[in-house]
Design brief:
The protein is mainly α and about 160 residues long. It has one domain: 23S rRNA-intervening sequence (de novo design (two linked rop proteins)), CATH 1.20.1440. It has four helices and no strands. The protein has helices at about 20-35, 40-65, 70-95, 100-135. Helix 1 runs antiparallel to helix 2 (about 40-65), helix 1 runs antiparallel to helix 4 and helix 2 runs antiparallel to helix 3 (about 70-95).
């Protein structure tokens, strides 16, 4: 058995190492690729708003990751708000014919998975915070700090 230590490639921007960030950007790309071409101004507004909300999921994950834990949780909750917006846009896109039934279901499944992943990350951050309080560590350390608990939590979210 090879006992060599595998080097882990860590991104300069640590949020890029979060699986949830990758899944969120995948969803944004999926939305852009799968929406039918709008036929009128109202449909164009729907497409623009839908795309904007899908981008907000990843944008808030990225922004929050540079903050302290409680602020990161706050930004993750804002990401969940963007997910709920995308659920509404999915339903409307289906109603006006910009999504067929299959794409509507795919979008909903993507969004349910993102919701579960963000919820799990929030719980992980909260548990880490309780452990920190018990060990009397500084609760205002930013997530980008190498000594912060982001190193200790599973980044497979």
């Amino acid at each position: 058995m090879d006992n060599s230590v595998q080097e882990r490639n860590v991104s300069f921007f640590r949020f890029e190492d979060l699986r949830i960030y990758g899944k969120a950007t995948d969803y944004s790309a999926w939305v852009v690729k799968n929406l039918s071409t709008p036929n009128n101004e109202m449909e164009r507004n729907l497409v623009n708003s839908f795309c904007h909300s899908s981008y907000d999921i990843a944008l808030n994950i990225a922004e929050g990751s540079s903050r302290n834990k409680s602020q990161f949780e706050h930004y993750l909750k804002i990401s969940k708000t963007a997910i709920r917006e995308c659920i509404v846009f999915t339903a409307v896109a289906y109603s006006v014919g910009l999504f067929d039934e299959e794409r509507c279901n795919q979008s909903r499944e993507f969004l349910m998975e993102l919701t579960r992943m963000i919820g799990a990350l929030i719980i992980s951050l909260q548990r880490g915070g309780r452990r920190r309080e018990e060990s009397d560590m500084d609760a205002d350390t930013t997530v980008d700090d190498p000594d912060d608990a982001l190193d200790a939590i599973d980044t497979n979210f």
